[in-house]
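I hope you will forgive my troubling you with a question about protein structure. Here, with my thanks, is the record as I have it:
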Amino acid sequence: MAHVLEVLSIEHNIWSDTFKDASNHYNNKIAYLEKAIKFGKDSLAELCQKHPDSNNLIRILGAQITTLMGKHRNAQTKNEHLEEEVNYLNDEKSILKEKLRTKEEVHRAELENLRLSHKETFKKYQEETRKNMNDFLPEWRSNLI
């Protein structure tokens, strides 16, 4: 059982690290998209000042900014989902560790009970052997004489 829990713990660590890496990747992507949105807004403001009559170009840039903002929201949602997965896996890891600790305690108690039982059984065997030896020793001595 301990081996199964160790395997599950290792698998949990692998998935946890994978989700953390993905979360970091999405955090980096979010930062990049935020910079792109700011750059787009700044560019739009600059174009509006330089070319007040270029409404078509402004609409295109506005649409691109809106698209980037949508991608940014999607990346944030994915990141939140990945963070929830990491938290869930960490909770599962804690539960598995507690179960493993409990199982180990139970096994230690069982081993101690077996040790004591074997110790008592061995003492009884020794006592019975001594008794049998004491009972039969005079008879054997008489046969030797």
Observations:
- The radius of gyration is 38 Å.
- The mean pLDDT is 82.
- The CA atoms of residues 108 and 114 lie 10 Å apart.
